[in-house]
Each structure stands twice: as C-alpha cells, then as structure tokens.
Design a protein that fits this description.
The chain has 186 residues and is of the alpha+beta class. Helix content is 30%, strand content 30%. The protein has a domain of 111 residues: Immunoglobulin-like. The chain is built from three helices and ten strands; from the N terminus they run H-E-E-E-E-E-H-E-E-E-E-E-H.
Length: 186
C-alpha cells in the first residue's frame, strides 16, 4: 500500500475526491421543482416570472396575488394575438362553457392582460390560447417560477437549508483530506 501514499497518486486521488464533492454540491443546489401552494406564501401581490412552452406565447409581466388560500395572476403577453385563455387543453376548451374562459383586458399601452387562477407555483399546467387570427385553440404549458419571487414572499425559505448542506459537505471533504494527508505522513 506504499504506492497509495506517493505524492503524484495522492494528488490525483485528492483531485478526484474534490471533483466528486464539487459535483455533489452543484447537484444538490439544483432546485427540483416541488409545487408551492398559496398557504406556503405570504399574502400580497408579487412580480413573478412565468415559463412558457411557446415563443408565440411570451409573458412579459405577471402579477401574482396571494390572499388566504387562493392565488390569481394577471399575465401580460408580448403580443395581441389571443382573444381568451383556458386552463386546460384545447380539446377541453372546445367543449367548455364561456364562463371558464379568461378574456383579455387591454392596457393603456395596448397590451393584452389575462387574469387566471393559480393552483400552485413550480408546477406545470396546461393553458390553451384562442388565436384571434386563426380562430382556433393552441396548447401551451406554463410554470409560475417561485425562485423569481422577492425575498420574504415564501413562508419557508429553502436557501439556508441548501447553504447548510453545502457547508456540511465541505467540512466532510476537508476532514477526508486531512485524514488522508495524516496517513500519508506516517
């Protein structure tokens, strides 16, 4: 086992260990989407980003309002091509009653805004948009991104937990390096 403690091999082993630890840290920091519901968010109105599955359905502004256990959003689209929205697929929209549609409200700047209910953040949902020009529904998938909410909006902030886990991994990796170096010195 004397070969294990030679300088070049030890440096390679330490380098590999550090790369593995860094990879674990980066992977643990990548946020997996877990739905966040209204009762996990402080009441108020917040700017939030919305991810869209289509470049033809670009949301340039969104105001999320949280009141009690309900959330609604007023989304402003970049264009004026959609008469109404439906939360669901185009097939469902074709047979839905008119009361289930969200019609646009035009802003003073000529933009189209739509108010829709929001079930959860960080959860994909289907939204069909009715094209004024083509007179047909188009399927879209939207996600309200909780990581774009301002500080203090969430009742529980996961960032400190991520920092603590990362720090613990760094301490463990430092301990491994120290132990290996001590054995090398013997």
């Amino acid at each position: 086992m004397a070969w294990l403690y030679s300088g070049d091999i030890m440096k390679k082993i330490i380098s590999v260990i550090m790369l593995v630890i860094m990879a674990v840290c980066f992977c643990s920091c990548e946020k997996e989407l877990t739905p966040i519901y209204a009762d996990e968010i402080n009441d108020g109105t917040y700017n939030i980003e919305v991810k869209s599955s289509s470049s033809m359905f670009k949301i340039i502004d969104c105001q999320l309002t949280v009141a009690g256990e309900k959330m609604t959003a007023v989304m402003t689209l970049s264009g004026t091509g959609y008469e109404k929205l439906f939360l669901g697929t185009r097939e469902e929209a074709d047979i839905a009653p008119d009361s289930k549609f969200s019609y646009f409200i035009e802003t003073t700047e000529g933009r189209y805004c739509y108010e829709i209910p929001v079930e959860a953040l960080d959860k994909e949902f289907s939204c069909a948009g009715f094209s004024i020009r083509k007179q047909k529904w188009y399927d879209r998938t939207l996600v309200f991104m909780s990581d774009t909410l301002p500080d203090g909006a969430l009742k529980f902030d996961p960032v400190p937990v991520i920092i603590i886990v990362t720090a613990a991994l760094l301490v463990i990796s430092a301990a491994v390096i120290i132990i290996v170096k001590r054995k090398r010195g013997k």
